[in-house]
Amino acid sequence: MPGPLPAVDMSGDPYGAADLPRGRPLPSRQGAPAPGAEEPLAVVAAGPAGAGRAEVLAALLRLDPAMLAVPAGSWLVVRHARVPSRAAYVPGYRQPHSYGADRLAAGPALARPPRRVELCVSEPLLRHFALVDTPDTGSLGVPGGRVLLEAAGRAGAVLFVIAADQAFTAAELHLLADLAAARVEVFFAVTPGAGGWCPPDGGSTTEDTGASVRAADAGSTGPSAVAPVDPAAVTVAAHRAALLAAVPGLARARWFPVSPGDADDLRRGLVGWAADEGLRRASATPPVLPGAHGRVPVLPEPGPWSDQLDRRARSAARRIRQHLALELANIHLRVVQEIVFGVGCAGLPHLLDREMEALSLLATAQCDQAVRTMVDEAAGRVFGAPLAPGVRRRIANAVRWGVADHRSGEELDRVLLVTSTGGVAGLTGAGAIDALTGYPGGLRDEVLPPVAVALSGGCWQHWRSPGNDDPNAARAWAQRALREVELELTREVTRRFEVIRLSLDAVLSDAVDHGILLA
């Protein structure tokens, strides 16, 4: 890892970070969760536009960069498979659309961009981990950054690609600070800029650096050998020094200069991380969890646990509804600002769809955490002790089976689609939910299916039409659509927790009646 070189002139502050605190990390907005033991290994690639990220990934995979092209705003997930294939996952459909595996294959005519495109190729590197390419960091915004953090937390590593003549923006520094605060490995790849290997401020060049070194040696006595200056190392050191001035938590991150078609060092670094991380995850969870088998006795008199469960379920649902209402209000403010001063009417569907993706992740995480707390508290009162991991899983499996009997005539795996009229339509099925995921990791072991909200293809067709370019109409439509989303989410959260309460109550009541856990 090259260290900071004192000859590199960083006085120009090319990264615009003069207002950022020096010597301490930026405040973290939202930390990514620790990678789960059952999550597959993946490397999430990110970076600004024009950094050559597609070329770096193509060099890693030994593919034509054209094969990695996806619609703007879509994620690309590259996996290993013997038979090449490429499929697009579009919200509003239960089945993916086939793209064709060769670079010349034309994509299908889709009403809206897919959330993700999955490319399967036979490449040995992908046996170690999957590669995930994300939209350019300049287009992510607040919701896109949250989605990337969530995906990175499950994948385990991030590859940030930046060109030699580019600079870290304030939004990228905040994103990297969040990654530094999480248990995520960060790799940096620096590619040549338009002028080759040169510092990002355009001031001191590698030739200037070499001249200063030679001048210093000329002033010394006796013969001396001047070491040749590596322009790539100088550029990498300049980027690293500027980054660590704002985000010192990434001091252990590894940096790699990547020339066109040459990513061997980066490949070896990623494979080494995958080997270590794979061993860590494999040893994090034993093959058989404690409490997975055997009798689990209950207390002779567990007390009014059922009434307490009812109060906890109602309280959790109310708290989540309030939090989502506040988040939707913030979304409305950001959307109106972008309509008036940013993307305009044509960019409204893409902006709102990304907001709905981040909102779905937030609602899913809050519901999952609340359900886990309900199970631990209610079962702890019945059994009189904290739950062992195996006992918790047995209860969760029994509750999941019981949920099917208490759905009140409606499926829980339901997608909420915002229509072009500002309403919300429903689409059920596990395939419909899977189409809304930018990066699908391992199988979920939570009791509830994820919350899924997206925009239908009609929204893209409507607001990209030349005749629908009225900012006032767009603001009114966005307000109406967000209000409908809030009403639907309120009903969905209330129904979910009522179903969970009934199912968990039935499982624990059977345990109390029989004196042992039957699951």
Protein model, in words:
The structure is a single chain. Residues 1-33 and 202-224 have low confidence and may be disordered. The chain is α/β, with parallel strands linked by helices. It has helices at residues 53-61, 141-155, 170-181, 206-218, 231-246, 264-284, 305-341, 348-383, 389-403, 430-434, 457-463, 471-514; strands spanning 42-46, 75-80, 85-89, 97-98, 116-121, 130-133, 156-163, 185-191, 254-257, 414-418, 424-428, 452-455. Helix 2 runs parallel beside helix 3, helix 7 packs antiparallel against helix 12 (471-514) and helix 8 runs parallel beside helix 12. It is 44% helix and 12% strand. The strands form 2 sheets. It has a 9-stranded mixed beta sheet with strand order 4-3-5-2-6-1-7-8-9, sandwiched between helices. The protein starts with 41 loop residues before the first strand and ends in a 5-residue tail after the last helix.
Distinctive features:
single chain, 519 residues, alpha/beta, 9-stranded mixed beta sheet, disordered N terminus
Q: Give the SSE order as H and E letters.
A: EHEEEEEHEHEHHEHHHHEEHEHH
- Number-wise, the strands total 12
Rounded radius of gyration (Å): 26 Å
Walk across the major sheet and give the strand order. 4-3-5-2-6-1-7-8-9
Main beta-sheet annotation: 9 strands, mixed
Name the beta content range. 5-15%
Based on CA inertia axes, which overall geometry fits?
globular
N-to-C CA distance: 53 Å
Question: Which secondary-structure class do the elements indicate?
Answer: alpha/beta
Approximate helicity band = 40-55%
What would the average pLDDT be, to the nearest integer? 84
Number of helices: 12
| Regions with little confidence, pLDDT below 50 for 5+ residues | 1-33, 202-224
